[in-house]
């Protein structure tokens, strides 16, 4: 029997040069010497899809070696980046033109720079995307985390990506150890949902079946920001995994605290994957109530339970042919808020936002130690300056 391939996410670093308003990871960097090594990467299983992420993955100067090694075991690789290190991205793409690149852009120029905390962040990201397109790279696109501040930019940014012939991936605010954040919350749900509704209709109106399924994903984001149960089961840790910079294998990046199935620096993959610790994490996933709706956990579920999104697409395409559009009020909870059957406060309680939570950042003791005398920003800024002077 053919070996079963998994869906993996490799967090190559927790270092980041951005200062995003919805993520404090930049304040909690990993120590470079502790970050996942090529030896550990060699121990990963066969994968049908690998996402390389961070922090900012291009902070690692050996990113090419990592990609080269991962291509020996993965059918498809996509790197999520803030797009700041243009030269490194372009250089990598010259060697791996088949790779996917997703650059996070959080809105049009002013909004993006405000959220991302990088003065020229939009121009850097946009120019990088344009350069990749001009090089003939096919699998490139934008990624946007939708919140109150940037929701009005959602459709304009989608239209920009469409004009450039690029992919457009969306998410909304999440809280977890990975983002070192517990206070993210959507304040004006109807306004944000209205912008998602507009995007869903743009996607359904397109000729691309892939975009029709993206429409379903964005419909799920409306459900998520209203704090409702996931539209599809979450099977993270069954045929999907995340591995952090320390070699710890985890089910996902959505848990409040870090959940560890085993450590690939010290164990073989088979030993780790079949361990009692891994089973314990799987039983936690089975009753997890965080109801995340991020592409990492939804994309495998959409493939596995394909008839659910497929039926949704068929119904909504049929509606389109009768000139009726998708409405956010198809979601009962959206009607309930409009009709006063639930209050904003009720919905706030359904979210993962916890203003009193102590946030666990998932760092090792050595990475924590370096934060005693310096801030994460100071450490990473000095690190990047040293890299540039080499
Ligand atoms: S969201 Fe990404 S780019 Fe922004 S601070 Fe967090 S890790 Fe860095
Ligand atoms: S819902 Fe799934 S992705 Fe979210 S925290 Fe739970 S197990 Fe992880």
Describe it:
By secondary structure, the chain is α/β, with parallel strands linked by helices. The protein is 42% helix and 12% strand. The chain is built from 16 helices and 9 strands. It has helices at 38-42, 63-70, 86-95, 109-116, 121-134, 154-163, 189-205, 209-225, 269-273, 276-286, 295-304, 307-321, 332-338, 344-350, 365-370, 376-389; strands at 6-11, 47-53, 77-81, 100-104, 140-146, 167-172, 240-243, 248-250, 262-263. A 9-stranded mixed sheet has the order 6-5-4-3-2-1-7-8-9, sandwiched between helices. It is globular and about 60 Å long. 46% of the residues are buried. The mean pLDDT is 95. The structure holds iron/sulfur cluster (2 copies). One iron/sulfur cluster binds at residues 16, 18, 20, 23, 25-26, 54-56, 82.
Q: Could you list the spans in which at least 5 consecutive residues all have pLDDT below 50?
A: none
Strand content: 5-15%
Structural class: alpha/beta
What is the percent of helical residues? 40-55%
Strand order of the largest sheet: 6-5-4-3-2-1-7-8-9
N-end to C-end Cα span? 49 Å
| Rounded radius of gyration (Å) | 20 Å
Largest sheet: 9 strands, mixed
- Compute the average pLDDT: 95
Number of helices: 16
Per the principal axes of the C-alpha atoms, what is the gross shape?
globular
Chemical compounds bound to the protein: iron/sulfur cluster
Query: H/E element string?
Result: EHEHEHEHHEHEHHEEEHHHHHHHH
Number of strands: 9
